[in-house]
Write a structure and sequence with these properties.
With 341 residues, the protein is mostly beta strands. 3% of the residues lie in helices and 44% in strands. It has a single domain, classed as Distorted Sandwich (Beta-galactosidase, Chain A, domain 5).
């Protein structure tokens, strides 16, 4: 009888987790139920003779609860920032930070801290699938968001030629009675076991999103800058990161077969690659220069459905609108291709 992937329950301090492992030990992943957050994803490399950590996630319960750096956070019902924590939707003004003065920056939604539960799991000889669900986004639960959503997060972890792959699908269902604004994304940090300065990055994007000093996109078409006019941020031809400091969104991603766009992080010394893929949306890149721990030890490559502050941008209104009873999904993930494939 062929051995299958294994799913086991565990804990990170007091936080419940799920551990996925390949029957031959070649793949190992850990997902916290809090936020359906990926904590670790490791794969075997023949040359190294051991498992290699490919993500830079939360290392302990304290880090997970602090959310510093939003390590591998799933971003819903909005990715990145909402300017001043305020937006207008359906003819009503909403404040995501009521009563707060001074710094009114709000980041990355609230699903990343919400409780999820495992509702289904399947295993084969080649992969494991986890389906996690959150039913806690309801009117009154989160200030400034009087809408009702159910969120399903589906992880698929296993082998996929030419390497190993971790795929994620976020599905949101509007279970309320009014149209809700909604968009999703993912905020993972990736590592190839060396400082990012030595790595090579390829972003298949034609446009850079220009922002103000608060990293909020400029109004209207002023936000869109062709990368032909911004050579310092142009990674359409793969090149070494060096000392580049990046916290920017890239648009107009070129898709390959089947509509899948790939942003590639490579190690020229070994030939290893991480291919971060997504169906639609934007790619936000952050070189980790302001992290509290291990600055520039990893790089955030973030598939997102919309640009920052989409809640306040008329051109995103149709993309955000999730009508009662309707469901929408965003698919993305990463493939690890070790040298030799």
């Amino acid at each position: 009888m062929t051995a299958e992937y294994r799913i086991a329950e565990d804990r990170l301090g007091g936080e419940p987790t799920l551990v996925v492992s390949a029957p031959d030990g070649s793949v190992h992943a850990v997902v916290a139920l809090r936020g359906a957050t990926l904590l670790s994803w490791q794969a075997a490399h023949a040359a190294a003779g051991r498992l290699t950590e490919l993500t830079d996630g939360y290392r302990d319960e304290k880090e997970l609860l602090s959310q510093d750096g939003v390590r591998a956070g799933l971003l819903a019902p909005f990715p990145n920032r909402v300017a001043d924590g305020r937006y207008r939707y359906g003819g009503h003004d909403h404040d995501l930070l009521p009563g707060r003065d001074g710094d009114r920056t709000i980041y990355h939604g609230f699903a990343r801290e919400a409780p999820f539960r495992l509702v289904d799991a399947t295993t084969t000889a080649d992969s494991a699938r986890l389906l996690l669900r959150c039913t806690g986004i309801r009117p009154g639960a989160y200030p400034g968001y009087p809408f009702a959503l159910d969120l399903d997060v589906e992880y698929t972890i296993g082998r996929r030629e030419p390497g190993v792959e971790l795929g994620i699908t976020i599905r949101a269902t509007n279970v309320g009675e009014t149209t809700a604004p909604y968009a999703a994304g993912w905020h993972p940090y990736f590592t190839l076991s060396r400082p990012i300065d030595d790595l090579v990055l390829h972003i298949p994007a034609d446009t850079l999103i220009r922002t103000d000093a608060l990293l909020v996109p400029l109004p209207g078409e002023d936000a869109r800058l062709p990368l032909d006019d911004s050579p310092a941020m142009d990674f359409r031809t793969p090149r070494r990161l060096g000392d580049a400091v990046i916290d920017a969104c890239f648009a107009d991603l070129a898709a390959g077969p089947g509509g899948r766009a790939e942003t590639v992080l490579g190690d020229p010394a070994t030939g290893d690659e991480l291919r971060v893929w997504q169906y639609g949306g934007y790619m936000h890149v952050f070189t980790g220069d302001t992290l509290a721990r291990d600055r520039r030890a990893s790089i955030a490559l973030e598939p997102v459905e919309t640009m920052t502050n989409a809640y306040n941008r008329p051109e995103h209104a149709a993309a955000l609108a999730l009508e009662p009873g309707r469901q929408r999904e965003f698919r993305f993930g990463v493939t690890y291709v070790p040298s030799g494939y």
